[in-house]
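Please predict the structure of the following assembly.
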Amino acid sequence: MFDRQEFLKDLISPNNSKIVMLVMDGIGDIPNEDGLTPLQKANTPNLDALVKESDLGQTIPVLPGVTPGSGPGHLGIFGYDPIKYQIGRGILEALGIDVEVGEKDVVARGNFATIKGDIIVDRRAGRPSSEESAQIVSLLNDKIKQIEDVKITFYPGKEHRFVLKLTGDNLGDKLEDADPQKEGKPIKYTQALDESSEKTARIVNKLLDEIKNVLKDESKMNFALFRGFSKYPDIPNFENVFKLKAAAIAVYPMYRGLAKLVGMNVVKTGQTVEDEFKTLKEKWNDFDFFYVHVKKTDSYGEDGNFDNKVKVIEEVDKALPLLLELNPDVLIVTGDHSTPCLMKGHSFHPVPLMIKAKFTRKGLSKAYNEFECARGTLGTIYAIDVMPLALAYSGRLEKYGA
Amino acid sequence: MFDRQEFLKDLISPNNSKIVMLVMDGIGDIPNEDGLTPLQKANTPNLDALVKESDLGQTIPVLPGVTPGSGPGHLGIFGYDPIKYQIGRGILEALGIDVEVGEKDVVARGNFATIKGDIIVDRRAGRPSSEESAQIVSLLNDKIKQIEDVKITFYPGKEHRFVLKLTGDNLGDKLEDADPQKEGKPIKYTQALDESSEKTARIVNKLLDEIKNVLKDESKMNFALFRGFSKYPDIPNFENVFKLKAAAIAVYPMYRGLAKLVGMNVVKTGQTVEDEFKTLKEKWNDFDFFYVHVKKTDSYGEDGNFDNKVKVIEEVDKALPLLLELNPDVLIVTGDHSTPCLMKGHSFHPVPLMIKAKFTRKGLSKAYNEFECARGTLGTIYAIDVMPLALAYSGRLEKYGA
């Protein structure tokens, strides 16, 4: 597979300019009943003014037609091939609840389940509340601390979900899910898929028996299923690859985790977009590159809440002067994927992209939305090409060839 | 080479929705003297109404600048990498005249030629009529039925062309053309390019001598040249790859053959576009995916007949309500390549693409033509990305990554 990072390596020449990548999660949409997308509907004087100084385009997160999860969506805009680098479900789940994952750890997503005898009768244990579920997690942490020389830790998640962490030597992560996927099937023990994961499989299978024993008197949460066993992935370090000292400003743990995973410095921030932009100002002198993540455009897309998605865009627009007064050399406004309100979920549609910098073509557009971006001067490109463009517009990419 | 089919495999989840891919062969064009393309000139109220509900884009059949034959043009829109999968000239010629090609067969394109002594003096034997040529084919079938244990069959084609089929065990297809390519050169015997094709080469060379002997008294068609020895290609089955039960509705044998070659079910139909749409209705409940092929847009492009190309587009538009009343979940309107009337042949220009489905962005366009498609919300993509988009718009592609 052609590796852009490998190709760019010798062309990158650091300088002192500042790049801001503002990611409105799930920003791309399709028109609602009234024929407008949230970006079209929102009143965004600041974004509109930016358009006149910017180049527009749209990105394909992975491949045309492919709907990315948050992992591949972010890897793409961070300049990593989302097909080459895959992030296990266990890792993502762990990042999402702020679990520290070290080099010797294997993590997995856990589900509490209900069994009768050895048959799974409810894969979600009747959807317990997060509080109920956390009590069982606490019980497991009390009763099961170690198997052989491997430390066992459970972390509470939402409802029936939790995270399992195994810490020890020689733990591979190539093993089958310990989950029959369907109800009415018997308990499924895991199996190693390579030699280096045999110890992990043995520990997990012993753990299943211990969990069954500890929870035998529970009426609903009397067993657990495990999926997505994964170690912390071995990904080239963003700062080394792009020669950029990078800060991540994000409210939600999963996005802080994704940024940390590629090697960005996660900085503390508040709860609102304005808080995030203030953090940007505070840290302005300490970094070259800033990833700023706005979550709620995606959340309201997932909820199908068009009006609130519009409001979040307007909130970003209103706070934008705080960012603009810093006068970044390159400002990228984009998303990691589309989350159309009508679809209530991530989608495969291309993602709007705007790049404000000194040497842009500008173009004929007067608004930042899906349609103007589709006709923009940057064309339709892959998300993985956004970072090279960020470097180029910031004057960091030298001429290739004589 | 990155294999999209391999990548998509785990993401495809079948459902009951219906996809129609309407292929107007060679639909893309360039403006004629009056400044309009056939798509712009044609009166197409039904296509124009569709545009408002659709996403537009344009496809690159193979690579920018590469003009595809019908084989690679179709492989691309069928979701096969046209560089990875190549269809021999012999196979395409055989498909074009409805020759059944089995696993043990090697086929080649034949040309009747005129020789004097052992020198080729006319590579097309004075361009005989198809009737004259068919008589010689019949004579050869009478006189040459078998060489060693290999069955020999000749099938008449257009003018000086015919198809040769060898049927037997251990027949490889890696051999040189038995054709010196230029007139004034001596007869060229073939040569095996690998060990497994040595038997085929020996048979073909004996056959050349037998043909020369049988036709020694003919004045013009007294010899034959053979090109493109090929076996039926080993191509992953469309229905397995995309998990779609697929029907092909096409008037011309080559396109039925191409569809059969990837594993579609070829259904019987009539001669007109209206007939094809009626067949679509008849078979509506039996399949998930329908490839509907309109040939004459290409034929008139090849003839340089602008007005008739316009008329075929209008014929399609007029018949379109028959298709639309079936209410397909996804309707794709595209071509396999461009055939500009001014060029009188296939070209490398991008191909208009329209996708009508539930979750489209729609966009700002009001007509289906080369220019609106170039500005469409799908952007400029490769033909091989059309099938993934068809799956995505039909709700058959699951999210990639967590």
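Chain A touches chain B through 42 residues (CB under 8 Å). The CA atoms of residues 113 and 125 of chain A lie 4 Å apart.
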